[in-house]
Design goal:
single chain, alpha+beta, Ubiquitin-like (UB roll), 3 domains, four-stranded antiparallel sheet, 11 helices
Length: 410
Amino acid sequence: MVIVIDPQIAGISGDMLLSSLVHIGANQSKIIDSAHTSTDFLKGSTIKKISFEKVDKNGTEATELILDIHEESNERKAVEIQECIMRTTEKIGLSEKAKLFSNESIKTLMRAESTIHGKPIESIHFHEASSIDTVIDIVGVAIALDDLNYFDADIITSPVAVGGGQVTFSHGTMSNPASAILEIFRNSDITITGGQVKEEITTPTGASLLVNLVSGCSEFYPSMKVKSIGYGAGKKNFDGFANVLKVVQGEKLFDFNRDSVQILETNIDDVPGEVLGHLIEKMMENDAKDVTISHAITKKGRPTNLVSVICDSTNMNKILDILISETGTLGVRVRTSDRIIVPRVTVSVPIAIQDKNFTVRCKMAKNKGIVKNFKIEADDLKLIADSLSLSFKETDELVRNQVKQKLNLK
């Protein structure tokens, strides 16, 4: 099963994610009951009304969380909210995965506030997130994910619209996205984008839930058969688009993994081969996934070398610096590309050749649980070949036969 969370138009908030899961079919009675249970652990909070209702958002029927609460205070220590969440999940008997998800989600929010204000987590106070509705969102989403068996699914997100303009809250007015949003998404693999309005459309609670839930971010949907769709309504109404979070459940068409990488390309026509050879080595040493250099002809019949590098977004700036400093290129093209990856594992296999013992690393590719092919680490083969004074080709044949026997491969 694969789940796509789609906040690329309207962003994401805790109540939007919760409502979208209810729309798909999560048990709303469990969520409502847990909300009332949580008031036992948060003094000064009263729930006057809680329900999920169908609403129309720019022509899209969606589910909205209707919540009427009374709070005696608009400020609480963050640890009070965390304790309420933990005691509620324990009281209602959530699974261990759901408990861990709930706790990590609130801790993400707490860490962001701690970093921003430069204070220990224990002394952080929540303002906007101090209400019982934060507990309802986090615990409710955990219940819904448990109920739908989504904790065992492959969950990905599209890029997140965060809005623009300015936002005014307890600490005054600042540009949107606010610091908490940026801090939550910092060091995650999730891409953010401005969106279509100058308002806050992604909340810290929604961001915290998302970073603890998804396994990756992709601009494109995976190859899948769509089974269910949930639309979670936000409170605001906008001209030009429906303020809804879309969650799509489906079945993978292929038993492959998927991720996104950055591809860097540049044309070089005045760099000697020795520099290009050194460039490949240096970029691979700095975590490039692959480097390809191919010959081509450009304008006016000029011969050139096209350098193409695949890397993670986290390593992109480092690779860019190397590419520019080593070659002197005046420009680099950058694009994001999705990859389909055949599942693979690396195993160490002990072997014996000519009465000498070695261990070789083998990368095995699997499709539908069956090993389709394997490749022996070239450095290991070279070491054995040099040790036994054999050719690389002969060593490869000897080692391959032993690996097949050891792993019962055909």
